[in-house]
Amino acid sequence: QFSHNTITKANQTKQIKEQEETEAKAIQIGSKDRSKKRVEASCFVSMEVGRKMANMLGTDHDLNFKETELCLGLPGGIAVVAAGNETESSSSPKTSGKRGFSETVDLKLNLQSKESTMDLNKNLDDNGSKEKSGSAKDPAKPPAKAQVVGWPPVRSYRKNIMANQKNSSEESGNSGAALVKVSMDGAPYLRKVDLKMYKSYQELSDALAKMFSSFTMGNYGPQGMIDFMNESKLMDLLNSSDYVPSYEDKDGDWMLVGDVPWQ
Amino acid sequence: MSEDDERQQSPPSDLEFVSNKARNCNATGSGSGHPEFQSTYPDQVLENVLENVLHFLTSRRDRNAASLVCKSWYRVEALTRSELFIGNCYAVSPGRATARFTRVKALHLKGKPRFADFNLMPPDWGAHFNPWALAMAKAYPWLEKVHLKRMSVTDDDLATLAELFLGFKELVLVCCDGFGTSGLAIFVSKCRQLKVLDLIESEVSDDETDWISCFPEGESNLESLIFDCVECHINFEALERLVARSPSLKKLKLNRYVSIGQLYRLMVRAPQLTHLGTGSFSPSDIAGQGDQEPDYVAAFAACRSLVCLSGFREIIPDYLPAIYPVCSNLTSLNFSYANITAEQLKPIISKCHKLQTFWVLDSICDEGLQAVAATCKDLRELRVFPVDPREDNDGPVSEVGLQAISEGCRKLQSILYFCQRMTNAAVIAMSKNCPDLVVFRLCIMGRHRPDPVTGEPMDDGFGAIVMNCKKLTRLAVSGLLTDKAFDYIGRHGKLVRTLSVAFAGDSDMALKYVLEGCPQLQKLEIRDSPFGDVALRSGLHHYYNMRFLWMSSCRLTRHGCQEIARAMPRLVVEVIRSADEEEMDDVVGTIYMYRSLEGPRTDAPKFVTIL
Q: E strand or H helix at B327, and its extent?
């Protein structure tokens, strides 16, 4: 009887937690969740993977989808990891506050002088990302191109200098598209937007809402799977205050979109 | 020794006495010829002669060989070695080094392994200069020169160098950290004989101390001042005055806080410079509108001895034509922080006929490399760095650029080439066109990328390099590689001393081929490759001949590494844990192992376990 009580309590706690997470969690465009107990990865999640993971989870309805889903997380470039498998990680050290790796950041104002759209097919085909070469080829492992610590082998000294140069050229107004990667928690892939196409934050917000309208968040089906069918729910959520766009600036801080004048 | 033999067979003592005396007189012109001293005298002579001869021996490899001949040679060599090089600061203790070599004037020390540069090692791993500084203060008060690479140096250490070594002349810090501008301030203020202060790619913390002002007044002996890596503002007026009172200054490399206008003022005061780092090479923000721009071209034209040019940290390409006057004399040009296009490069490079060393960004594209190949027939060293060091981009340079370089620059000895795509054909072409290659480092940034034209692994390309480049001593591989590539390396890379491997190979056999096949292998650094304990065991016969072995994210287990540590008592096997690894995990994240006379070091941090 004692054990039954304990289990019920555990369930309750879980449910409360889930609720809290859904409500309070501002699902940023770019994950804000910095839970360190999860090994987080910078990656793309395909729909196929989502389904497979759901199957793996089996019939345990109480399993919080959030716990096991792959999220975009800390800059610091942790290797891609299969869902739930927390011990498997690359030997790369967690960032100890140093955020020199521009290559590992999921959303960063990265400006490129030529357009490059993300090719999802390319990512799906490319299963060459064996960050932890000791691991078997796990079919549930997302085929993402996670940026790996220390690769390519360019000294952080040099990387920082090039990053600084990019930033200052951005300030002096280079021509060309100002392309920015945008990700949304739980979405199977990222998008890129050209900031120069919009004249105000409202325009940007609308465009993002349209872009991500093909997914739905926050309402998990019985198997913990994302319900991709419910577009109107998504639009509501996106336009509500639960979801705010945020970005990571060059200092590595998460900032709310809208504070800095649009120019 | 031959003289000893002679004496044993020599005639009776009275004749011996006479003949010895004669010999002594001939040899030294003095000589009591007293019988009791005769047994030591020839030895003494020999040692004196040896000492004089060995003074001329500069190469440390020759000296190491000489010291092995016999005890006498060992002793004399130790007395005459004035420049001490220690490739791994943990291989020997300061005490042991200073006990053997008593007359050292210059010390060259290396600390952390190279992969530490790429954040593969947590900070505070070690390589502290402090114990060396203190030991040398006692043993070599006449020390003049210290050259450190990848060591941790504190402000106190800098103070020690300046205060305890009265004749100190040269400090070179490459990839070091742990000190700041306040340490520099103390160092330069107290080091009155300073000739060389070179800070290269080091991390210098900004303590907001104006260290440039701390150079003593009066004429300075400065010959070289390199501070391009110092990321803080400097007092320009003080710098200008310093340059003005340094008539021997030949090398000056400024940081990015020096504007082009300020550069002009310095160049005008120091036309004798041979090596110049230009700083930002752009105007400062506060440059007035409508101010007359100085005649930069004239300033460069006045520097008739300039052979080495670098800097361009925040380049405004409009100013590039200023350097035209010096191009034809340049032997070394470093554009590796200048994001310029092929069109911007061409007018410059077409004048650089004497160029031997060229560092550049891939922003110049294959077209820019073709221009280099067309003019720089004397090129010995090329490094092409990526503007955007990420994997998933289209790259501006490719096999086309490499092919062009191989055809135009036949004397090439050293290449470092970052790219997104490469073909076996181009690599094979380079192996045939550039037989003098000593260093071949190719970094195909996408992991496991095959040849995009044939779909094959890159085995044949690298195979050709080791087969055709008979002088090759340093190799870095990349792209999709099977065990076959390593078979080639093991078979043909007989002179290879340094090998870097990442995301390559299929099985333990690959590592086995290399460890069994490359007798000169000294430094082996491997990451993210499927090599396990069996492979590690295959190198037991060789590890004492190596400086170090680094393996991270491979398939090693703790007990496998333990086996090695047990089998080789003079090998220090460090297991380095990243933050989220548990101490007793059997899978090992990183091992770093090196031969050492001292056993486990006492300054290891918590995340290091020595087996």
A: helix B324-327
- Domain B433-610 CATH class label: alpha beta
B335 phi/psi in degrees, rounded to 5: -105, 20
Residue A134 Cα, gap to closest chain B Cα (Å): 6
To the nearest whole Å, the CA of A95 is away from the closest chain B CA by 9
DSSP B507-523: SHHHHHHHHHH-TT--E
SS3 B598: coil
Q: How far apart are CA A118 and CA A191, in angstroms?
A: 7
Strand intervals (E) in B201-250? 204-205, 224-226
Q: Which CATH number fits domain B43-81: 3.40.50.2300, 3.30.460.10, 3.60.20.10, 1.20.1280.50?
A: 1.20.1280.50
What are the start-end ranges of the H helices in B444-545? Answer: 459-468, 483-492, 508-517, 533-537
- Whether residues A92 and B554 touch (CB distance < 8 A) is answered with no
Region(s) of chain B under CATH 3.80.10.10: 330-421
* Domain-wise residue ranges, chain A: 177-256
CA distances from A40 to A35, A104, A105 (A): 9, 12, 12
Interval B479-518: pLDDT, tens? 999 999 999 999 999 999 999 999 999 999 999 999 999 9
Q: Which residue has the tokens 């008979």?
A: B470
A152·B529 Cβ contact <8 A: no
Query: What is the per-residue pLDDT across B177-232, written as a single tens digit (0 to 9) for each?
Result: 999 999 999 999 999 999 999 999 999 999 999 999 999 999 999 999 999 999 99
ipTM higher than threshold 0.85: no
Report the Cα A164 to chain-centroid distance in Å.
24
Q: What is the dihedral of CA B311, B476, B202, B262, to 10 degrees?
A: 0
| Strand-pair partners of B442 | B417
Whether B118 and A151 lie within 8 Å, measured CB to CB: yes
Pick the CATH number of B330-421 from 3.80.10.10, 3.30.2350.10, 3.30.710.10, 3.40.50.450: 3.80.10.10
Judged by CB atoms closer than 8 Å, whether chains meet at B589 and A162 is answered as: no
Name the segment(s) of chain B with CATH classification 1.20.1280.50. 43-81
Say if the Cβ atoms of A93 and B203 lie within 8 Å.
Answer: no
Q: Does the CB of A132 have a partner CB in chain B at under 8 Å?
A: yes
pTM of the model: 0.71
- Measured between beta carbons, which residues in chain B are less than 8 angstroms from residue A116? 393-394
Which residues touch B468 (CB under 8 Å, ≥6 apart)?
B431, B432, B435
pLDDT at B245 over 60: yes
Which residues in chain A are contacts of B578 at CB distance < 8 A? 89, 91-94
